[in-house]
From TrEMBL:
Pfam families: DUF760
Biased composition (Polar residues): 296-305
Lineage: Eukaryota, Viridiplantae, Streptophyta, Embryophyta, Tracheophyta
Gene that encodes it: LOC107779810
Protein known as: UV-B-induced protein At3g17800, chloroplastic
Start-end of Basic and acidic residues biased regions: 283-295
Length: 421
């Protein structure tokens, strides 16, 4: 058997929505690669209280003397528990980790100063001319420039991540820690975290919350309201659904932002306000609201990984149970194919990298074993004992993570242009 160690083939997903997949949470497909997905992903432990060396501390004090923060948990009044699964490793990332654990409200100011420094460094690099000499000097010059560009990319990734974590802290919502079977839990369940459903609901618009409920209905099926039932589910599958839900949250915030603007300006397309769901367009056919079974089967077929998530664990209702029409969904249905594809695309490699690294830090690096027949051998796939309430909590966090990622990517790009048009 052949062992595939590339992370891109596990948690990375292809996010290419079609109008045929708009039955509910819409637009999620698992198992393929992110386009332009970076390779060589490392496994990082959690952000915690970071002790910097003198050199790194000098870096922080030189750039941000006005917002230096104490590293001592006793001084900051915070516990030493990790605040996020992913550890930030660059000098800028470690400096922001200090601010997150001591004075999180100062993170935006620290980020602005770091972005200003990055912009200065990039402008300086662009103004330099390549040496006129040939051979080794040019190769060395280009290699140095490449290393500096990669360092800036990593710094940008970690700036984005720090801002996302800070938004969760502002909302008083704790991120789920790295998932592993707890030794202290007699039942072996991994979901010992609080649900916080009411807090998540207040972070999205009413229209976006309708779409999120459809997304949950598509994933949990008839177990949507059954928070206490426990199932054993593939850790790889849960990680794939988490990554897909981050992507969905990114897309949802992007279209909801446009929807809210057009609603305020009263220029919404005709028919968007129809909430009775008398018909919807699926694969070029009008499906009457009474034809639930046909619609649900089409949704399941467009998400083949969901049906094999945990055989029989979703109950008799099946995936797609409880999906309801919504104004925002009708609005998305009015998009042409090109617009839909554009809105469903992650704009920057840095954002893609953060989704992959955060998911891997949360669920660990999976070992994918391919049999000689070309199928995936699931014998080494770890099973998690988790309640459906715990799954709901993971999905809500992932959707919110994607929504915050859109916000902070736009914020950072307004100060340091890195998003390709």
């Amino acid at each position: 058997m052949e062992t595939a160690t590339a992370f891109g083939s596990s948690f990375s997903i292809c996010y290419r929505p079609t109008k045929a997949s708009l039955g509910g949470s819409d637009f999620v497909r698992f198992g393929s690669q992110f386009r332009n997905s970076p390779s060589g992903i490392k496994l990082y432990p959690s952000i915690s209280h970071v002790k910097l060396s003198n050199k790194k501390a000098a870096f922080g004090s030189r750039k941000c003397t006005s917002i230096r923060a104490s590293l001592s948990p006793s001084e900051s009044g915070r516990s030493a528990a990790p605040i996020a699964p992913l550890q930030l490793e660059s000098p800028i990332g470690q400096f922001l980790s200090q601010i997150l654990t001591s004075h999180p409200h100062l993170v935006p100011a620290a980020v602005d100063q770091q972005l200003e420094q990055l912009q200065t460094e990039r402008d300086s690099e662009q103004q330099k001319e390549e040496p006129s000499a040939t051979g080794t000097d040019i190769v060395l010059y280009r290699r140095i420039a490449e290393v500096k560009a990669n360092d800036r990319k990593k710094a940008l990734e970690e700036i984005l991540y720090a801002l996302v974590v800070q938004k969760f802290m502002d909302a008083n919502v704790s991120l789920v820690p790295a998932i592993s079977p707890p030794s202290s839990e007699p039942s072996g369940r991994v979901d010992t975290w609080p649900s916080q459903d009411d807090k998540f609901e207040h972070l999205h618009s009413a229209e976006a919350n309708e779409m999120i409920q459809n997304h949950l209905a598509l994933i949990l099926g008839s177990r949507l309201g059954d928070n206490s039932a426990v199932a054993q589910i593939s850790k790889l599958r849960v990680g794939q659904v988490y990554a897909a839900s981050v992507m969905y949250g990114y897309f949802l915030k992007r279209v909801d932002q446009r929807f809210q603007l057009e609603k305020t300006m009263k220029v919404l397309p005709q028919g968007v306000d129809d909430e009775d769901g008398s018909f919807r367009q699926v694969g070029g056919e009008e499906i009457r609201s009474g034809d639930r079974s046909d619609t649900s089967s089409r949704v399941t077929q467009s998400h083949p990984e969901l049906s094999s998530w945990s055989a029989g664990s979703a109950g008799t209702g099946g995936f797609g149970h409880g999906i309801k029409p919504s104004r925002l969904r009708n609005y998305v249905m009015s998009f042409d194919g090109e617009t839909l594809q554009r809105y469903a695309t992650i704009r920057s490699k840095e954002a893609i990298g953060i989704i992959e690294k955060h998911t891997e830090a949360l669920f660990g690096r999976p070992e994918i074993v391919i049999t000689p027949q070309g199928t995936v051998d699931s014998s080494k796939d770890e099973l998690l004992k988790i309640s459906f309430g715990g799954l709901r909590r993971l999905v809500l966090e992932a959707v919110t993570f994607g929504s915050f990622l859109w916000d902070v990517e736009s914020y950072v790009d307004s100060r340091y242009h890195f998003v390709a048009n």
